[in-house]
TrEMBL record:
<protein>
    <recommendedName>
        <fullName>Heat shock factor-binding protein 1-like</fullName>
    </recommendedName>
</protein>
<dbReference type="GO" id="GO:0070370">
    <property type="term" value="P:cellular heat acclimation"/>
</dbReference>
<feature type="coiled-coil region">
    <location>
        <begin position="22"/>
        <end position="49"/>
    </location>
</feature>
<keyword id="KW-0175">Coiled coil</keyword>
<dbReference type="GO" id="GO:0003714">
    <property type="term" value="F:transcription corepressor activity"/>
</dbReference>
<dbReference type="InterPro" id="IPR009643">
    <property type="entry name" value="HS1-bd"/>
</dbReference>
<comment type="similarity">
    <text>Belongs to the HSBP1 family.</text>
</comment>
<dbReference type="GO" id="GO:0005634">
    <property type="term" value="C:nucleus"/>
</dbReference>
<dbReference type="Pfam" id="PF06825">
    <property type="entry name" value="HSBP1"/>
</dbReference>
<dbReference type="GO" id="GO:0005829">
    <property type="term" value="C:cytosol"/>
</dbReference>
Length: 76
């Protein structure tokens, strides 16, 4: 095989491997996304079972005590 042909083959192989790596990474990220979705659903189900159905609504509300109401008070 000529040196030019060998260089071309190595370049093609390198490009194929990099595209293969990107495809593998994309697939792995998709799998992780699915796992995170499943985990979020499981946590929501557990919270419902524990009687915390309104957890998301509670988390969206501001805290009951605000430093704006009492300038000298620090909330920890």
């Amino acid at each position: 095989m000529s040196p030019q042909m060998e260089t071309t083959m190595q370049t093609l192989q390198s490009k194929f491997q990099s595209k293969s790596s990107i495809a593998t990474l994309t697939c792995t990220m998709d799998e992780m996304g699915t796992r995170i979705d499943d985990l979020e659903k499981d946590v929501a189900d557990l919270m419902t079972q524990a009687g915390m159905e309104d957890y998301h609504q509670m988390a969206a509300q501001p805290p009951r005590y605000s430093t704006a109401d009492r300038p000298g008070l620090f909330v920890i």
